Amino acid sequence: VAFVENAAAGAILHVLRWKAGEGTVAAPATPATSTSSSGAWTTCLAGSTSCMFNLTYSSGHGNTLSSPFPNYSTDELYTGDDNGTLWKLINIFKGTPAVAPGGWASGVFVNSPNRLTSPVFDSTSGNIFVGDASGRLSFVREVGSTMGTCPSPPCLDASNLAVGNASPITDGPIVDSTTGKVFAFAGAGLLNANVVQANTDLSAPVTVNVGVASATQVHAGAFDDNYYTDPSKGFLYVCGKPAATNSNPVLYRIGFANSGGTLNGATDGNSLNLTNNTTAAECSPLTEIFNDNQGLDWVFVGVPANCAFGGSTTGCVMSFNITSPDNNTLSAFPPYVASPTGATAGGSSGMVVDNVTIQGQDSSLYYSTLSNSACDDQASVIAGCAVKRTQAGLK
Fold first, then answer.
1. What letters, b where the CB count within 10 A reaches 16 and e where it falls short, cover 299-336?
2. Quick check: 365 and 352 in contact, CB under 8 A?
3. Mean predicted lDDT score pLDDT of the chain
């Protein structure tokens, strides 16, 4: 498992090789070996105990938002830091992790000193897309890139988009390599909340307003299942803000103009309040899953308080049945009732879904709470909780 820590010393990549059966939920184990030494790492991997390698790749600069993006075929990953620098790390799972040499040795400056989002590597263009705290969407040309004009990859291309109009982008962009489109989301600033789509050379941008400016961020949206067959018959769902002066979370959807995936210039005109008051709050990133065992398409979202459905005043996760005919109809939205909901202290992080089989423990989603509460495994301990719920029923 590879993950990044935001530490006082800087941004640290950790690669963990676990040992099955070691530790429990109530009594977690620490790795038997934790090292920054190549020799100690190699020796530990040759044995059977748990091991963790620690690589400080950006000394003096932390990493608040930039989760690593792996390229499994090359055993590499890309990640950013809070000083606007993109990094490439190599030998992640099949050797000793290290900063890539050559043009990557000191990272590639994207937009210093703005913290970067999670990057996304597009295998079609050979470029890495990343947003930042200034509201800018950029791309870095990798060696072998087929798109862009900067002359000596790796290099920052001159093309970029002001997605947030000085509002920070906090979630990584969505890249659709099939249609050649990239999407970014922003809204915590002085101007309106926006979804921006562009071609992967960042030309022909389409900006869609999803509400007013707010002190709280707009996170990444999610496509419905129809989109993956034919974008013209699908929708992008996003949690924005109302069209009035309020900044409570509101669910929108945006259609597509053609099978090439060109985003419409406006939402479909409908929206759904996700809280029962107008207090500023932000949604989790949206998560969608088509459960073919049910024949149902679901979208999941968390809010931190005053849930409009289910009655929880301290946060919840909601599920919406967005199944619709394969004809881009407007009648299916909004789904006026969330069915079902699950109380979640402070709302949820982003959610991870597993598969959709009928086997026991499958068809579930996983997230963490954003506020402390009593967790099921240790009812006497008040802490942040890791949560597992079924997709159907949120039990």
1. bbbbbbbbbbbbebebbbbbbbbbbbeeebeeebbbbe
2. yes
3. 91
Structure-derived torsion over alpha carbons of residues 170, 175, 181, 184, reported in degrees to the nearest 10 = -10
Taking a C-beta distance cutoff of 8 angstroms, is the pair 66, 115 a contact? yes
- CB environment 114-151: b (16+ within 10 A), e (fewer): bbbbbbbbbeebbbbbbbbbbbbbbbbbbeebebbebe
Residues 6+ apart with CB under 8 A from 73: none
Residue linked to tokens 């990493």: 63
- Mean pLDDT along residues 86-102: 98
CB 342 within 8 A of CB 389: yes
> pTM of the predicted model, to two decimals?
0.93
| Alpha-carbon distance values, 359 to 293, 295, 352 (Å) | 11, 17, 18
